[in-house]
Amino acid sequence: MTTPNGRGLLHLAAAIDQEAAYDAGPPVELARLAERGALDFVTLGDTFARPGPDALSVLSRVAPATTRIGLVPTVTTTHTEPFHVQAAVATLDWVSRGRAGWRIDVSTTEGEARLFGRRHAAPAEALWQEAAEVADVAARLWDSWEDDAEIRDEATGRFIDRDKLHYVDFRGTSFSVKGPSIVPRPPQGHPVRVVDATEGHARRVAARHADVALVRAVDAAQARAVRAELRDAAARSGRDPDTLRVLVGLVVDLGDGEHAADRGHGGGGPRPSAQGPLYRGGPVDLAELIADWHGAGAADGFHLTPVEPRRDLERLVNGTVALLQHRGLFRTFYPGSTLREHLGLARPANQYAVAGGAS
Q1: What DSSP letter does each residue of 282-299 carry, written as one string?
Q2: Per-residue pLDDT for the chain (359 aa), expressed as one digit of tens each?
Q3: What SS3 state is found at 235?
Q4: Which residues pair with 251 in a beta bridge?
Q5: With DSSP H G I counted as helix, E B as strand and the rest as coil, what are the percentages for the chain, rounded to 5?
């Protein structure tokens, strides 16, 4: 399916982070607002470096308060147990009925390492190699239950067909996992994997494992080059590059009202900032930027981080998204119910069931 500009479907996502928010009200409100605009997903950041509630747990609370929008918490794979990580992400997929993703991240500082006391901080290259292994073993554990492994036969008292549970027997550089999982295979098969591909080590992991790669660019040419690099790397790793969605990350400041974009913004492109490429202007100019870059093949979509979450997300949905919808460039409703369906990604086959069927 294509948009009127001849490109593939436009994908839009937004961050709903708010400083010092410790109750469920703000993220629920923001996720519902994003859902009203039919955005593909929202993200909620997390890190061991600052205090705050666990993002995955918060979005598990948001799940029953929403119906369609994808929910993507940051999940740090360093210092955490891969078996527990996959079970928690699978649980989010179950409670959201197939709308879960996870933004894979690593922890690089000695201060964060001391919180756990298990090991010292490691180089980024080693940590991203470990993150790739976590992504790999998570997929294997999700497949360790075949889709019809649950029998639930009251007459015989059989709950599970043990022949349809599989040991993964995975051994990585820093951990090993036998399996199977304690959680049945998630509704999506594999919850969506999101990787910020800004840095080189993370970019290699994104090319091999991510369903969605987040990139930074200050103009369409740079975004197009990074997207082409990721797709080429995905193909070299044996993947179909059309199974990778590349979203440009922009920090957006939509100000007090509609006005021409500041110099260096709008049609001239975002400008660099400490938080990433920054767009400051009105919702209409942002819609033009999104349409132009997507139409030029620079990105499959955009991940937008509001400077003022409530104000800017509302202007994004009621202004930018509404204009893109009016022009036929973005959906007006969700045609499916899962995050994979929003992104146009197929549900993965179970690797153990496929192997068993081929034997």
Answers
A1: -HHHHHHHHHHHHHTTS-
A2: 566 665 689 999 999 999 877 888 999 999 999 999 999 999 999 999 888 899 999 999 999 999 999 999 999 999 999 999 999 999 999 999 999 999 999 999 999 999 999 899 999 999 999 999 999 999 999 999 999 998 877 777 677 888 899 999 999 999 999 999 999 999 999 999 999 999 999 999 999 999 999 999 999 999 999 999 999 999 999 999 999 999 999 999 998 555 555 554 444 569 999 999 999 999 999 999 999 999 999 999 999 999 999 999 999 999 999 999 999 999 999 999 999 999 999 999 999 987 665 43
A3: helix
A4: 278, 305
A5: 40, 20, 40
State the Cα–Cα distance between residues 143 and 169, nearest whole angstrom.
13
> Angle at CA 16, nearest 5°, toward 280 and 317?
60
Largest CA distance in the chain: 72
Query: Hey, which bits of 133-232 come out as E strands?
Result: 150-153, 158-160, 170-171, 176-177, 192-196, 212-215
The two tokens of residue 238 are 């044996």
Burial degree of 127 (CB within 10 A; 0-12, 13-18, 19+): buried
Element (H, E) at 93: helix 82-95
